[in-house]
Design brief:
This protein has 251 residues and is α+β, with helices and mostly antiparallel strands. It has one domain (10-250). The chain has helices at 46-49, 103-106, 148-176, 205-209, 213-221, 224-234, 237-250, and strands at 10-12, 22-23, 38-40, 55-62, 68-75, 86-88, 94-96, 110-114, 120-125, 131-132, 137-138, 180-188, 194-203. It has a three-stranded antiparallel beta sheet with strand order 1-9-8. The chain has a three-stranded antiparallel beta sheet with strand order 10-2-11, with no helix packed on it. A hairpin with a 5-residue loop joins β12 (180-188) and β13. The radius of gyration is 20 Å and the shape is globular.
Length: 251
């Protein structure tokens, strides 16, 4: 799964096309997240993410049967192009103002792309600032074989894709039981003014209360109930997000 606001020019990693590319020494993936206001997350990240960011759901296209899919995201800004966790100091140093960084950001500029129904391959963002042709870690050795860096990334991304598949299952069940409703995220700034952001979905607690014991048991078994409880808890971070926005406006 690609984060469309993060990967500007995704391409399958190719031994001939990318033979000369090297990952710059000391490159920080978060350097490219300045304008990213939401990032896809996997269900196994919820326990970490909910302590730092609001977790909401967004439409994520359709599955093979034409059913709408919903995907969880960590909210990092209240409008397009705004990331309130990204900070650049006066000296030019990039900082990230949260203890946990979601996997999609940590693995950037690498990701997985689906080659066909059963195969996935490593992709890179060709336009990323991560690349050099002179210094850094090579993507391929002299024989054109994937370097240790690429092999490690491939293994890590495969693990992430397995977690994403479980997350898709959770999203599908939440959609099936109609447990997500559109919501405008409204926050109040310290001066009393309010700010609203739409396009997000959150738990419909009334609908959840209407489910049968059998339906709740199913949601418990596949991890959906646990994910919903962490999603609900994470919404308390909206106030902290408003405080970040206020401080950013005042500087």
């Amino acid at each position: 799964m690609l984060n469309p606001t993060l990967y500007n020019s995704p391409a399958l990693l190719d031994a001939q096309r990318h033979q000369s590319l090297r990952l710059k020494q000391g490159f920080k993936a978060v350097c490219c997240a300045q304008g990213v206001n939401v990032v896809f997350i996997a269900a196994n990240e919820f326990e970490h993410v909910c302590k730092e960011y609001p977790i909401v759901f967004v439409p994520a296209g359709e599955d093979k049967l034409g059913r709408k899919q919903m995907a969880p995201v960590a909210v990092m800004g209240l409008e397009q192009g705004e990331n309130l966790y990204f900070r650049t100091s006066k000296s030019g140093r990039v900082g990230w103002q949260a203890r946990y960084i979601p996997s999609f950001l940590r693995y950037y500029p690498f990701t997985l792309g689906q080659v066909d129904a059963s195969r996935w391959a490593v992709c890179i963002d060709e336009d990323s600032e991560a690349w050099s042709k002179t210094t850094g870690q090579p993507l391929f050795d002299e024989q054109g074989q994937p370097s240790a860096l690429v092999r490690e990334m491939h293994a890590a991304l495969q693990n992430l894709e397995r977690e994403i598949e479980q997350t898709r299952v959770i999203g599908e069940r939440l959609r099936y039981f109609d447990l997500l409703q559109p919501r405008v995220l409204t926050t109040t700034l310290p001066d009393g003014s309010s700010f609203a952001a739409d396009g997000f979905y959150t738990l419909d607690e009334k609908r959840l209360a209407e489910l049968s014991k059998m339906q709740l048991a199913e949601l418990h078994r596949n991890g959906s109930l646990h994910a919903l409880s962490l999603h609900k808890a994470s919404l308390s971070n909206l106030d902290a997000l408003a405080q970040r926005r206020w401080k950013r406006m005042k500087t």
